[in-house]
Amino acid sequence: PRPILLTRHGESRDNVRGRIGGDTVLSGSGEIYAKKLANFVEKRLKSERTASIWTSTLQRTIITASPIFGFPKIQWRALDEINAGVCDGMTYEEIKRNMPEEYESRKKDKLSYRYPRGESYLDVIQRLEPVIIELERQRAPVVVISHQAVLRALYAYFADRPLKEVPHIEVPLHTIIEIQMGVTGVQEKRYKLMD
Ligand code: G3H
After folding, report:
1. How many CB atoms lie within 10 A of CB 181?
2. Which of 22, 138, 162, 194 has the fewest CB atoms found within 10 Å of its own CB?
3. Is 161 a residue of the active site?
């Protein structure tokens, strides 16, 4: 079996302010997570001959990967966070206040709700297909550093969770989800590196 390690980027400045989307750098605690993650990855993959680190094209994942040395890094646009369209950069409070109909329709059907000029979870699931094909093909371990909505979809695929659960799966910050793909099925471990 070979591990696939899934993690969100370290806490970003927008996470602290409750803003969705955007492309900010990490907060202080996000920076600390990046170092702890590098430590963890180095130890966990020490005995592996090859492995690779996949990030999105957004700063917060690239910066989270930056203290990790010794493995090739690949940026995938398909790993970028769900595109919140006209709501990019807003807080949920602001969406509720300024666009109450949008807020309500999303609440009603979070899986298929598409942000105006943005994406739905179903869109994200679809664009992840090439990433999943490549993850299945790889023989070596992969560390995927991405975003909440994207990791919900990836996790649901490997853990065989139903589509309707995807937008509600818990993928907390500063936690590594390790998936082991063996002949007998999939095993999962979670490592919470900090609060
Ligand atoms: O910025 C987007 C969030 O990571 C996705 O969260 O789909 O629960 O609003 P949500």
Report:
1. 15
2. 162
3. no
